[in-house]
């Protein structure tokens, strides 16, 4: 079946460091890919999405590119802030007419000042 | 600020109580969802409503009873819950089921069962 694999956390970085959180997927066909972020004590927020190969999603300085050849959707940010500390979830939806989000396990990010 | 509003934010209840969780969205979305999230885990889908009709029930125990009174509102009625039901309950909505119509989540209700 379809699945999403994320790098294990926690990931601990200093402020202004470069961030990469790896996400790879297994799916037939052409899924849509998402990154969601969950700040402490809050719900999930859609951070960015990409719906076809080579699409780049971006938001709040974060970027991720849909790479079909490597089945990856890695999250990057050039300079992280303490306020970026959160849990990041990679997810996919397979095809149209499909309600089922397939989630990665989540990666906790800790940014130290 | 989230466009999906959930109330209450926190709820503590005994195993014999009856309570309800509420969710509201005004984005004109026609699909609404209930999820359960345990600490440090991704959300687990419970129910899906499409055009105000229940379309998916992911084998959820009958002590959880969903209701969709209209296109903007979604309720989750709780009765005789167990301690293992303590979790964050998230509501989400989406315009439809296409991949470019992502699900938008509320901040959740943190439920504790005594």
Task: Kindly describe this structure.
The complex is a heterodimer of chains A (113) and B (114). Chain A has 113 residues and is mainly β. Chain A has no helices and twelve strands. Chain A starts with a strand and ends with a strand. The mean pLDDT of chain A is 94. Chain B is mainly β and 114 residues long. Helix content of chain B is 0%, strand content 56%. Chain B contains no helices and eleven strands. The model of chain B has no long low-confidence stretch (mean pLDDT 93). The interface between A and B is medium-sized, with 27 and 29 residues.
Extract low-pLDDT stretches of chain A.
none
Mean pLDDT of chain B: 93
Give Rg of chain A in angstroms. Answer: 14 Å
How would you describe the shape of chain B? globular
Tell me, briefly, the overall form of chain A.
Answer: globular
What percentage of residues of chain B falls in helices of 4 or more residues?
A: under 10%
Question: Whole-Å distance between the termini of chain B?
Answer: 31 Å
Note the main attributes of this structure.
heterodimer, A: 113 residues, 6-stranded mixed β-sheet, 4-stranded antiparallel β-sheet, 50% strand, globular, B: 114 residues, 7-stranded mixed β-sheet, 56% strand
Write the layout of secondary structure elements.
The complex is a heterodimer of chains A (113) and B (114).
Chain A: E1 3-6, E2 11-14, E3 19-21, E4 23-26, E5 32-38, E6 44-50, E7 56-59, E8 62-65, E9 75-77, E10 86-93, E11 101-103, E12 107-112
Parallel strand pairs in A: 2-12
Antiparallel strand pairs in A: 1-4, 3-9, 5-6, 5-10, 7-8, 8-9, 10-11, 10-12
Chain B: E1 4-7, E2 10-13, E3 18-25, E4 31-37, E5 44-50, E6 53-57, E7 64-70, E8 73-79, E9 87-94, E10 104-105, E11 109-113
Parallel strand pairs in B: 2-11
Antiparallel strand pairs in B: 1-3, 3-8, 4-5, 4-9, 5-6, 7-8, 9-10, 9-11
């Amino acid at each position: 079946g379809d699945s999403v694999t994320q790098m294990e956390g926690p990931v601990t970085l200093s402020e202004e460091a470069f961030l990469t959180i790896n996400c790879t997927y297994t799916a037939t066909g052409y899924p849509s890919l998402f990154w969601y972020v969950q700040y402490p004590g809050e719900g999930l927020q859609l951070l960015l999405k990409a719906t076809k190969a080579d699409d780049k999603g971006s938001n709040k300085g974060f970027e991720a590119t849909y790479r079909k050849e490597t089945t990856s959707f890695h999250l990057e940010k050039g300079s992280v802030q303490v306020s970026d500390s959160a849990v990041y979830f990679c997810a996919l939806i397979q095809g149209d007419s499909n309600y089922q989000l397939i989630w990665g396990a989540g990666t906790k990010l800790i940014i130290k000042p | 600020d989230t466009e999906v509003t959930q109330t209450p934010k926190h709820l503590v209840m005994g195993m014999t109580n009856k309570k309800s969780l509420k969710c509201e969205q005004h984005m004109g979305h026609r699909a609404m969802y209930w999820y359960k999230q345990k600490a440090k885990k991704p959300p687990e889908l419970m129910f899906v409503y499409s055009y105000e009709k229940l379309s998916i029930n992911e084998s959820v125990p009958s002590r959880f009873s969903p209701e969709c009174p209209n296109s903007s509102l979604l309720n989750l009625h709780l009765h005789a819950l167990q301690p293992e039901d303590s979790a964050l309950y998230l509501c989400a909505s989406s315009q439809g089921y296409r991949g470019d119509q992502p699900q938008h989540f509320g901040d959740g209700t943190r439920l504790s069962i005594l």
